Structures are given as structure tokens and as C-alpha cells.
Amino acid sequence: MPVKIPDNLPAAGILESENIFVMSETRAANQDIRPMKVLILNLMPNKIETETQLLRLLGNTPLQVDVDLLRIHDKESKHTSIDHMNNFYRDFEDVRHRNYDGLIITGAPLGQIAFEDVVYWDHIREIIDWSQAHVTSVLFLCWAAHAALYHLYGLKRKLLAKKRSGVFSHQRSKHYFPLLRGFDEEFYAPHSRFAEMDVDELKAHPELQVLTESEEAGAYMVLSRSNRNLFVTGHPEYQKATLKEEYQRDLGEGLNPDVPMNYFRNDDPTQEPVARWHSHGSLLVSNWLNYYVYQLTPYDLDDMSAMTPWESDGVVK
Predict the structure, then answer these.
(1) What are the tens digits of pLDDT across the range 59-77?
(2) 249 assigned binding-site residue
(3) What positions constitute the catalytic site (predicted)?
């Protein structure tokens, strides 16, 4: 089934060229089904690139998904035109009265800034708090995962001496969770961040479960026992060239970055990168949308109290 997006969104042409099924608002209006309503809070600088990456994953699921794009403020973006933002993005005041099946909050280039010093920190906290009553399940990515773990559970991240960048091997810490169905015992995922969470603190927290982790990159997928919040500390949405572009940007800005680990062929940045995570990224989002959104959400979004309960081991009652 397709992901429904605005008629003229730039991502539509890109996704259609990749044979990913997208549907315009006009066509979707003639269908008599209950689609999943997913809100995306896009905090990344290049809005079009990130929205395309996420829509690519959402468009690879068997469910029809209606997507609303949300911005954190109405200030002009350095990398995205104000016309694009005004045409396709909503402000929080436009959606705060609504309920959604799912919410995705992206990463942000704020890894070395204290949360309280982020100019929109209060607004982020407000949206996270709102989501706990108005969204069936929330997927937090990278910086947003660290921010939400701090805001919701008081867990502090540890700043790293150098940026953690590369593609890392991960293993399952838990088994038989719906979110992990189809996962290999070892899989790969990209990371690009300046901080990490303490794995032992996460495992010791009574409200959290570490589902997958990496010896090199730490905890990767962390799920709240309520199943409402999924924290993913990496970037399953990244495309093949994304880490390369970040590395070249950092070089150009004189930041002397390390070469992303396990990414370029033979670890040589003059050679092509190797993408080893796309199937995992698609499976992660498909499982989240199916088992933690579609299977739990009420048919009537106005009645969030009708959510299907789960057992503590992730099995539907």
C-alpha cells in the first residue's frame, strides 16, 4: 500500500522513479479505508532530503499512510526554501488538537550543545509531552532519542571526544519481540553523533528495554515497556551517500573528521561506500508501523483510551 503525500511534494518524483508506491492527496480522497496517520517532526537542516528518506521507508510497508510534516518553528531555513516550508509543513498549533497513530522525530545537528541551550528546547519538550497522550507510538531518531530519554526518564548522554560516524555491527539483546521479527542475529546500521547513552543505565531502568546493541556503538534500539516510545540512536533512514556527504562537509569546514568506520570500501574514502543497512532500515520501520502502530491504535483516533494493551514481553493480549 502507498504512503499518501501532498500532490506537489518534491519527494514524490524521486520515490516514483524508484518504484516506491506513493499516492497523491487527490487520488487518496477517493479511497474508502482507514489509513495510518503519521506525523513527522523534521529537525534536520536539509528538509527535502530527510523527508524523502523517511517517506521511502514508510512507502515500503503494506499499510496506507497519511503523512503530515511538522516544523519546530517558522524561521527561515538555511537549506530549504521558505516556500517549501510554508507549502508542505504545519506548525504545532495546527496539530496540537489532533491525535495521530504514529510520530517520527528526526535527529538534529545539535550533538555538542546542552539540551537546555537548544533554542527550541522548551518546544521540543512540549511536543514530547503532547505525544504521550495524543500518539499511539513515537519513533525517536538519533539526537531526538537522546533528548527524549533525557526529558522522559532523566537519563544523561555522554559526550564523545570525536564524532561517532560509520556503519556498525549490532546484535539482538532481546528475542521474540515483534519489533525484531525478521532480524538477523547480526545486522548493520549507520551512526553519526557526538554522544551516546550508557548501556548499563538503560538496561537498569525499570521502564526501558534495550533490544539491540553494538560493541562499538552502544545501545541502538531501546523500547519503553509501555511500547509507546521507540528510541533508535542511529540513522536507519540514511541513504548510501549520506555519511560520505557529511564527511566531505566536515572536511570542507576544517573539522578534521575521522573517516567513517566500516563504510568506504577498504576504509578508503577515495573509494565508493558500501550500503549494508537498507534492508534492516526497511524492516525496522515496517515492524514499528505494523506491530506498534497499526496493531495497537484505535480505529477512532479520537479515543486513545481504546488502544490495544500489550504484555510486558511485547505480545498482544
Answers:
(1) 888 788 999 999 998 877 7
(2) yes
(3) 142, 235, 237
